[in-house]
C-alpha cells in the first residue's frame, strides 16, 4: 500500500493461482498436484489480505464508511465457505475437476474485477484533480 501499487500484486498472485489450478486440472501426477496446491493456496490467501487493505484505503472518508466497506468485503469473501463444499464431491477424486475449474474461473473473474476497479479509480482521481484546486487524498490503485 505504501507505493500505491495494489492492482499488480493482486493480478500477479491470481495469475500464479490460475497456473496452479490449471496444473491440478491437467494432471493426475501426485507431485504435480502437490506443487499446484502450493501455488494456488499461497497466492489465493495473500490476495485476501491485500484486498482488505485496499478496501480500507479506498473507502477512507469516514470511519463508518470504512467499517461498512470492510464488513461487506469480508462477508462477500466468506460466502465461498457456503457453496464450496458442494464443489468437492467424492466422485470427482482425485482431480476434482469441477472444484478446480470453478476456482480457476473465480480467479480469472477477480483479475477482471480488479482491472475494472483500477480503471474506475483512475477515472475518479482524474475527475477529483480537475475539480479540486486544494490538496486531496486520492485513491490508490
Give a nutshell description of this structure.
The protein has 141 residues and is mostly helical. It has helices at 6-26, 30-58, 63-78, 80-83, 97-131.
Map the helices and strands.
Elements: H1 6-26, H2 30-58, H3 63-78, H4 80-83, H5 97-131
Helix pairs in contact: 1-2, 1-5, 2-3
As residue ranges, the low-confidence spans are none
Radius of gyration: 18 Å
Helix content: over 70%
How many discrete structural domains? 1
Distance from N terminus to C terminus (CA atoms, Å) equals 9 Å
Which structural category do the helix and sheet elements fall into? mainly alpha
Strand content: under 5%
Order of helices and strands: HHHHH
Arithmetic mean of pLDDT = 86
| Biggest β-sheet strands, sense, barrel | none
By DSSP (H or I, 4+ residues per run), the number of helices equals 5
**Which assembly state applies to the chains in this document?**
single chain
Shape: elongated
Beta strands, count:
0
Question: How would you describe this protein?
Answer:
This protein has one domain (6-131). The protein is built from 5 helices and no strands. With 141 residues, the protein is an all-alpha fold. The N and C termini lie close together (9 Å). The protein has helices at 6-26, 30-58, 63-78, 80-83, 97-131. Its main location: membrane. Keywords: Membrane, Transmembrane, Transmembrane helix, Transport. It is found in: Membrane.
What attributes characterize this protein structure?
141 residues, mainly alpha
